[in-house]
Amino acid sequence: MAAPIPLAEVQEGHPCLWGAIETRPPVPLVTARHARLLPTRPSGAGGEGLWWRARTQGALDQHHQPIAACTDLRGLRQIYPLPPEQCRPLSAHADGDLRRRKERDLVLYGGTIYDHFGHLLLDLTRLYQLLPLFRRSKACFWFHYPALQRHDPITHPLVLEWFECLGIRDRVRLVQREILCDHLITAEVLYRDRGFVREDFPEAARAALAPRLQERLLARPRQGRIAYLSRHGLGQGTTRFEGEEVVVEALQRCPNIDVIQPETLSIEGKLALYRDYALVTGFAQACMNMKSFTPYTRRDELARQLMFVAGPQSLSTNWVNLERAAAFGDQVLDCSPPEGEQPPQLGADAPTRFQRSTRFDVEQVVETLRALDRG
């Protein structure tokens, strides 16, 4: 039976790996004078069926060129990039109201809000770099929010809760019309999906939470137990793990393991897992990103983490890159089923409301958890 390995030691060529492994050095903030923030709008061409081209959004510098740091990327794919016809001087296309509008003295651009929990956390890294500098100021933070129609308020509970955790809920503003910026400040991303993580990501993430929330988390006592993060109660999502119900049933007889469904917890409750428990384990999932944001004075105050993966593309390089930057000492265990068993079902063959379904070695997971329970 295979043993867990350090997550940071996973190399290119691992059978479960998906993406590129890379950490990058820090870079300075991005500033631009007399810039323009352009709102999210339909592309007009329907994006040729590609969701990442169905809309446009971004920022232009004083020379009417796109500010690259304000365009999202996943891998090498640009998300909602500005087309050439929008990169023109203001006088060439603006209505009278916009031409008369005064420039805002200072605009802090925090990036794009996505409703998916994992992307909500990790695609706002521009904001996390701005927070230490402007935490005590009264300046607002500006965001694109493609899921909203113009003039709609933010109502998604996870989005509102996350901004509450960051302590800036009342300072959030949406780019819903073109904004003229005398001085635009933003940042290069600290994380790119399946691409890279910058070395200063851990420090920025750990400092992102509101100070009062950090104090509450730091005051929590360690329980010394094991938390298993179960996905068996989900009705939709990225991956359905066939047989996880068997694991959950087996864990009912493990006195030191608590089965936890993260979707039932508040964001503060998810963060608290890493202060309360000695070990957090389960299949790779968005909740595990909470460890990066949980405050500590010493790394060993946080729960260790053991991540299960199974099958091709089940281990995103995001996890490897984040671990290499943070050096938590977390581990990963490949629980792919023995050769000859049915491979994962993908795309149209996956169960309703899941992107994919995959099998795993149920006995290996159960025996690993029982061994952890025995200490």
Please explain how this structure is put together.
It is built from 11 helices and 22 strands. The protein is of the alpha/beta class. The chain has 2 domains: 5-21 and 212-374, Rossmann fold; 28-187, no CATH class. Strand 12 and strand 13 (196-198) form a beta hairpin. The chain is globular, with a radius of gyration of 22 Å. The two termini are 18 Å apart. The relative contact order is 0.16.
Distance between the termini: 18 Å
Q: State the CATH architecture of the largest domain.
A: 3-Layer(aba) Sandwich
CATH topology title of the largest domain:
Rossmann fold
Strand content: 25-35%
In round numbers, the mean pLDDT is 90
Overall tally of domains: 2
Query: How many runs of DSSP E, i.e. beta strands?
Result: 22
Report a brief summary of the structure.
The chain is of the alpha/beta class and 375 residues long.
Properties at a glance:
24% helix, six-stranded mixed sheet, alpha/beta, single chain, Rossmann fold, globular, 2 domains, 375 residues
Protein topology:
Elements: E1 5-6, E2 17-18, E3 23-24, E4 30-42, E5 55-60, E6 72-74, E7 77-79, H1 96-100, E8 107-112, H2 117-122, H3 125-134, E9 141-144, H4 157-166, E10 172-174, E11 179-186, E12 191-192, E13 196-198, H5 201-206, H6 211-218, E14 226-229, E15 237-242, H7 244-251, E16 257-260, H8 267-276, E17 279-283, H9 290-293, E18 304-309, E19 315-316, H10 317-326, E20 331-334, E21 345-346, E22 354-359, H11 362-374
Parallel strand pairs: 2-19, 3-13, 8-9, 8-11, 9-10, 14-16, 14-17, 15-22, 17-18, 18-20
Antiparallel strand pairs: 1-20, 4-5, 4-11, 6-7, 12-13, 21-22
Helix pairs in contact: 7-11
